Amino acid sequence: MGTVGRTYREVIALTGPLLPVVSFLGRLPTATVQFGSVLLVARTSGSLTAAGLTGGALALGQVVCGPLVGRLADRHGQRTVVLAFSLANALAVTALVAGALARLPTPLLALLGTAAGATVPLIGPLGRARLIALARRANAPEATVSTALSFESTLDEISFVLGPALVGLAAVLAHPAYALGAAALLVAVCGSGFALHPTATVRAGHVGTGTSRRAGPVETPTVRRNGPVPTPAVRRHGPVPTSPAGDTESRRPPMPRSVHALRAALALQGAMFGACQAGITALTERLGQGDQAGLVYAAMGVMSAVAGLSMAAVPARIGLRTRWRAATAAAFALSLPLLWAEGLGALYAVVTVLGVAYAPHLVTVFGLTERAVPPARLAEAMAFATSALVGGQALAVAGTGRLAESYGPAAAFGAASLAAALACAIALTARPTSYAREGRGAPHARVPTGRP
Question: Rounded to an integer, what distance in angstroms lies between the CA atom of residue 304 and that of residue 307?
Fold first, then answer.
């Protein structure tokens, strides 16, 4: 573990200790608002239908607008985009709380939910893109890049475990509106802090000098700033535009086709998680232990976070394709016992073990995505990947919830296993490759994706 600990210290050294804290607190409202909006509307309106429509509209807004946020960040830089969306999201969440407390009609609540989802600043995906860009800028070894992805995925896992737990606690002790109000304040303060951090100006396509790993002001590169003008062959994505106001949109490198398989895999993982949520809720309700559902989710999330942190110990010689196949196969195999889980103890045991497969799959697919896409579109790719995950989960929760009501928890768990099997099939057949434009070489080494 000494080597792993040293690698994590190298990751923290890229940003300094403040950014991970601000990044974590800034992404916590995303998990809080998704679950909290459902509880809030259910409490104020007394209608589960209105609550479901509001929560679904919020998820839809994030799924549709997420890639746009990433594209804007790639084109204009993270600072302006994250600052604007953080403040807009704080206002939108506040409006949703006010509308729910005022008992507005369901269509208006759904509209406010859509606005709250559409303005999510996506600190998780942009934080991942920023950390990878910093690692590439410092010419960090591939072990550090992989650990950075593990670290970011673990922050996501912890936030999505802690967020709903805090909302549930607020609902029991007082009112869900307090949790959502705190989320609005947190995204305004910590989202702005993430936007204004000195590392916000780093560009994913910038190839640095590799002489420094210390965090600090990172200037948007100009072609003549630190030496001779680099030739196009030096950069694997072509020249870096110096002004976002120029014709960057017309010169954006195309997204490779291989990235679609990775997005489909993430959507299926989201569907698996959503189906598991529906099955867990249905089974705990059947056992008369509905209040245990949140704790079951937490057990799975904690195990997933531990597994994600442990990914730094996987030897670099094990290619990403091999890791991808192993993670999806494990998810499928470990999901099957859910079909026969009937008691609370068995449910805890099976779900906790299943958590081992979640974060490794996320870390691996995000790693493959980072290598497959043009660096100039890294933030957009990470945002799109996250939207695929959220969209798959939202659709699965809606569909398998009714399935569980009609046919029992095993039906939802069966849908989860089916999603895992399809994800495994994609991992076995897809051939994602590292990005290269017209044969130009990459300026830094990359983890081998493995042979088919």
Answer: 5
